[in-house]
Amino acid sequence: MHPAEELCRRSGSPKTRSAANRSVLFDLSSDNCADVTTTTNHAYKRSLTGLMRWSELSKLSRWFLATGLGIVAAFAAIAVLVPLLAGWGWIQDPTEALSNPINAAPSTAHWFGTTRQGYDVFARTLFGARAALRVVAAATILSAFAGVPLGLLAGYLGGRLDKFLLFLMDTIYTLPGLLLSITLAFVVGRGVLNAAIAVSISYVPQYFRVVRNHTVSVKTELFVEAARALGASPSRVLSRYLFGNVVQSVPVLFALNAADAILILSSLGFLGLGLPEDVPEWGYALKEALDALPTGVWWAAFFPGLAIALLAVGMALLGEGLGELFHERH
Questions:
Q1: What span, in angstroms and rounded, lies between the C-alpha atoms of 269 and 272?
Q2: How confident is the model over 261-293, as pLDDT tens digits?
Q3: Is the dihedral of CA 189, 127, 199, 293 positive or negative?
Q4: Tens-digit pLDDT profile for residues 197-250
Q5: For residue 329, what pLDDT band results from cuts at 50, 70 and 90?
Q6: Which residues partner with 120 through β-bridges?
Q7: pTM here?
Q8: Do 37 and 71 have their domain in common?
Q9: Is 131 found in the same domain as 5?
Q10: Does 86 lie in the same domain as 45?
């Protein structure tokens, strides 16, 4: 039972009316209890209906969501299947170079051509999707795990903790994200987890701000006050009554930050600060292809760059579509 309804039920009982009235600062007359029950029922109906129907979205929003989801799903399928395809011999080993011609143009033998080191561009581009999605997923998850709890605590508790965290997050947010990631990458070094940490640091303030502002707004609602009056601990209020109401914008942030994280990861790879050299990575592939561009070897840079652009656009479209979906829902 919802805490507001439970409190109304208790206040209506002869044995508990006086105790309930002493513990609550607002009137719980029969009319108010009816309003509480009606409001609660409507809230639960909205939560049980889930996401709005597909037909209620505008055509542009549906196109954003469908296109973005299709692109991201395609890259995710590539990331999952590419090791199996390489194991079956359908795709060349991305680390194999000695048996291939150097700077070979795209052909039936090498669909995307080869690099000046002899690497197969097609194989390294597909394996680059696997590395990119691993780092981007880890980075966005890390930033959400840090920003969401801090935003909940700051918004609910307020006081000095809120002021300190606001100052800290504003300080981080004022720094350019790419510069902050480059600086941190110098400190932590190369690797999937290290790159994820370097990329994630600039997104923590965004999750913190959104969740904190929603928490400040929602914590004054009647159902939260009723939960407190019933003796719910702060941890229970945060986890049961606030968390689900304030994290509804997190999926939108997750997708939009993932689009930006792809570009930052590629920038780190281009500077030689991302993943180890033996791991196929799009940004590092662009760096290696620059020397061959003046000689007409365009394919070594074109296909990794196209993959970066496609995945970033797909994530951005998915984020915009989710934003419209949740906006129209509420």
A1: 5
A2: 999 999 999 998 989 888 899 999 999 888 888
A3: positive
A4: 999 999 999 999 999 998 888 887 888 888 778 877 778 888 887 888 888 778
A5: low
A6: 114
A7: 0.78
A8: no
A9: no
A10: no
- Tokens encoding 187: 């400190």
26-33 contacts: CB < 8 A, separation 24 or more? 26/222, 26/225, 32/8, 33/5, 33/8
Residues 22 and 148 in one domain: no
Binned at pLDDT 50, 70 and 90, residue 97 comes out as confident
Q: What is the pLDDT of residues 7-54, one digit of tens each?
A: 555 544 444 443 443 334 444 444 445 444 444 444 444 443 444 455
Residue 180: name the closest of 288, 254, 273, 256 by CA.
Answer: 273
CATH code assigned at 285: 1.10.3720.10
Could you tell me which residue, 247 or 151, shows the higher pLDDT? 151
Q: Are residues 119 and 15 in the same domain?
A: no
Residue range(s) defining the domain that contains residue 14? 1-50
Instruction: Judge if 71 and 218 occupy the same domain.
Output: yes
What string of H, E and C letters represents the secondary structure of the chain? CCHHHHHHHHHHCCCCHHHHHHHCCCCCCHHHHHHHHHHHHHHHHHHHHCCCCHHHCCHHHHHHHHHHHHHHHHHHHHHHHHHHHHHCCCCCCCCCCCCCCCCCCCCCCCCCCECCCCCEHHHHHHHHHHHHHHHHHHHHHHHHHHHHHHHHHHHHHCHHHHHHHHHHHHHHHHCCHHHHHHHHHHHHCCCHHHHHHHHHCCCHHHHHHHHHHHHHHHCCCHHHHHHHHCCCCHHHHHHHHHHHHHCCCHHHHHHHHHHHHHHHHHHHHHCCCCCCCCCCCHHHHHHHHHHHHHHCCCHHHHHHHHHHHHHHHHHHHHHHHHHHHHHHHC
Same-domain status, 200 and 273? yes
Are both 116 and 223 inside the same structural domain? yes
Query: What distance separates the 2 farthest-apart alpha carbons in the chain?
Result: 91
